[in-house]
Amino acid sequence: MTTSEIIRNFVTTELVLDNSAKKLSDTDKLIDSGIIDSMDILTLLSFLEEQFGIEIESDELLPDNFESIDVMAKMINSKLDKIRGNE
Amino acid sequence: MDFSYSEDQIALREAVIKFAEQELCEGLIQRDQDGIFWNEGWDKCAQMRLMALPFPEEYGGSGLDFLTTVTTMEAFAYACKDSGLVHAICTQILCGMQILGFGSKEQKSSYLPAICSGSLVMAQAITEPESGSDAMAMRTRAKKEKDSWVINGSKTFITNGPIADAVIVFAVTDPDKRTLQAISAFIVNRDSKGFESSPTMIKMGLRTLLNGELFFTNCTIPETNILGSEGQGAILFNDSMEWERCLIPAAHLGTMERILKTTIRYAKERKSFGQPIAKYQAVSHRIADIKVNLELGRMALYRAAALKDKGKRATMEASVAKLFISESLKAACLDGVQILGGYGFSVEYELERDLRDSIASTIYSGTSEMQRNIISRLLGM
Predict the structure, then answer these.
(1) Is B327 one of the catalytic residues?
(2) B 244-303 residues with CB below 8 A of A?
(3) Does ipTM surpass 0.90 in this model?
């Protein structure tokens, strides 16, 4: 699975319990549309860090970095690239 | 998993217990009755460097890990019966943690040394008259005007509010956005134009801890006093709650251990129907339950603190620890008063104060109901 697919799967199965996220695209605004709220962000952060083995620093904890699946996937892939580059 | 204390942790705990027993036991009953914060006690704790525990040495801190900070605060609250003073110091540390985690270089250099030395008293202002558990429904507004932020609104029940030299204030900066992006945090100094605080509120317990209202009327602060980035307030708040839901319960564990010791001593000495009441299971089982909850609370809390030390999120673990320990503290206080009977009800034996102080533990830092909400959400419900 790609990073985007992993995130999408988590959002649609763990964060959204009704059918509203079934047609979610990678660029849909998750915060603006109310799909994730201030409590969901905690769940999402824990999941992303655990799933991908990354740390999201304080200065990266910005709503803009979680606004869509696409944005999150780019941030995570960038971190993974850095980790791989250091190995 | 290694559940034993390190030699350094043991030495620090012993030093703090000795300090508190020697220096912090005087006049508490009267201060509690009068609702007075103990400035001299604060200064003594500052000299003992209790407020400096988790902060880097470059800012005047002691550079300790969070687990050691937690075990030290637990020992401190065991020996210091002034739960108001303990809570005030926890608040000071927690405000510093927010600045350490999200502050600019200038903010860290400016505030952290004064927080560590205790020369600056900090408060954190989130709760409003119409938004408690639903904290993010706050109405206090902050508007950018040229090179300043102008804040309007009010906050209530603010710990250290009446005496704070600086306050971390959460306010709405973009009301058109969803909660997650709408709120920002600011550092407001007491001498800021348009800032006022109310007299101290009179409370049922924690009477030596000062709580009050804060008012912001076109309160103007420099642009650079924003903490973190604009719109980062809700995330900052959630992050800071993980620290808070570890540190304050650490103090609760200390209080529980003191209650355990007090009830065991009393139950062994007090005789009824020809034998010590400790021989009656109606008494000994209550005390055994306090011990069980103390040990389980420790495991939950130390696990959460250890995760934080590893740079991991501990949202679930901190909520579990906070919920369990605060509910256990209330139960322990009630059992303690019941076991001591009339003496437990009397001011002289100081258990009734612990009971009054414990009532708020399941309300502040997120009520028990909110902790269950968080745990449920994290379980995917």
Answers:
(1) no
(2) none
(3) no
